Amino acid sequence: AGEPINGREKAEKEVIGAFIKAVPDLNWKMVGKPVYDEDTVAFRWEFSGKNSGEWAGSPPTNNPIKFEGVSYIHVKAGKITWQGDYYDSKKLDEELKPVK
């Protein structure tokens, strides 16, 4: 979602940091074994926790959230050259809506 992020520091701050801020008790775990082929690694993961922090400018809902995704990583000379994460953002949006 959004623009590509370049560089480790920026990725840690703008991507990982946003998730940690929104879900301080997050549990992110790999589901199954990773698969790989030459310069590409892919694996499924599950993300869960409670939305007790701000998310994209919205106040916390205190809703539990849980969704699965897949990461694809390209590696060259031992360094990550590209990573993409795919998940059901509509499901996440629904889980982040305030309970009425």
Short description:
This protein has 100 residues and is of the alpha+beta class.
Notable traits:
100 residues; alpha+beta; 4-stranded antiparallel sheet; 4 strands
Sequence-ordered SSE layout with sheet pairings:
Layout: H1 8-22, E1 27-37, E2 40-50, E3 64-76, E4 79-87, H2 89-95
Antiparallel strand pairs: 1-2, 2-3, 3-4
Number of helical regions: 2
Order of helices and strands: HEEEEH
Shape: globular
* Radius of gyration using CA atoms only: 15 Å
Helix content: 10-25%
Count the strands? 4
Strand order of the largest sheet: 1-2-3-4
**Biggest β-sheet strands, sense, barrel:** 4 strands, antiparallel
End-to-end distance:
27 Å
Amount of beta strand: 35-45%
Poorly predicted spans? none
**What is the residue-mean pLDDT, rounded to a whole number?**
89
Given helix and strand content, the structural type is alpha+beta
